[in-house]
Amino acid sequence: MESVQQLAQKLKQNIANIIVGKEHEVDLLLTALLASGHVLLEDVPGTGKTLLAKSLAASLSLSFQRIQFTPDLLPSDLTGIHYFNQRDGEFHFRPGPLFARIILADEINRATPRTQSSLLECMEERQISIEGETKRLESPFMVIATQNPVDNQGTFPLPEAQMDRFLIRMKLGYPSTDEGVEILKRTASVSGLRVEEAGVTATKEEVLEAQRICGQVRIADDLMGYIVALAEATRDHEETLLGISPRGTQALLRAAQAYAALQGRGYVLPDDIKRLVLPVWTHRLVPRKRHEAGHGQTERILTGIMNSIPVPSEKELESGVN
């Protein structure tokens, strides 16, 4: 676990050269990376969503593609096409940007549902089917999508099936006063570091090994039962239309393992789960009055459920660790 923690520290220090503050958000981003998951960055323009995604990509020696999602973007623009080569008289495949390792899907909700659906297979199954042929995507593979929740003109809301593919949804929020001053200082300084100048701190092999180690983090049976109890409570809640699915419980488990490894631990604590419930589950929970309530409704429901479900005791955890 020390190697995972050291890798995370190197990445956080490198990202801190570009991003001011946002330590918790960076931890969540690295949690998704180590858990082989995807991230949806949702906030108003100008808060650093794209900059954070590019900073992570610049810190990794992995192929990176930024895709600007627009209404005229076609699925073939993402997956690639077969074209006829007149020189040899044969068809060849030209891979699209989805064949990179790190994908920045900028303003993903501006693309049509048809184009958005082309991401479902690659995000879940790590493969792309084109004209009856299935092409595998190499690991690690991560999609970091951004969207502006305020601007509804010219956008297409992401369907529940696609939202469920994201391991974590998070908001960056506005900086504090001190962070705002530091941002201006870096902007005014000619020596301010740009994303293109950030050094690579992690290789593909290091990331794959860290992902493997995170999958070995221990979690007690009672904590697994705690996750299931939380999920069942969302399904029975009077204000929910769709509760957390088994895929959602698996996502929380993987995220908790990765988060524990980031802290240098080989075991999951109840606090790891409680800290990750909101970023992992808020976008998976569908309230009955979702069109009438604000974005905080699902957070309120989940917070109430966490307060009502008892956390396993220390003795129960010690007896249930695998």
From TrEMBL:
Keyword ATP-binding: yes
Every ATPase AAA-3 domain range: 38-168
Name of a matching Pfam family: AAA_lid_2
Cited CDD domains: AAA (cd00009)
Coiled coil: none
ChlI/MoxR AAA lid domain span: 233-300
Keywords linked to the UniProt accession: ATP-binding, Nucleotide-binding
Keyword Protease found: no
InterPro entries linked: ATPase_AAA-3, CbbQ/NirQ/NorQ/GpvN, ChlI/MoxR_AAA_lid, P-loop_NTPase
GO molecular function, one term: ATP binding
Family recorded in the similarity comment: Belongs to the MoxR family.
Protein name stated in the entry: ATPase
Organism: Paenibacillus azoreducens
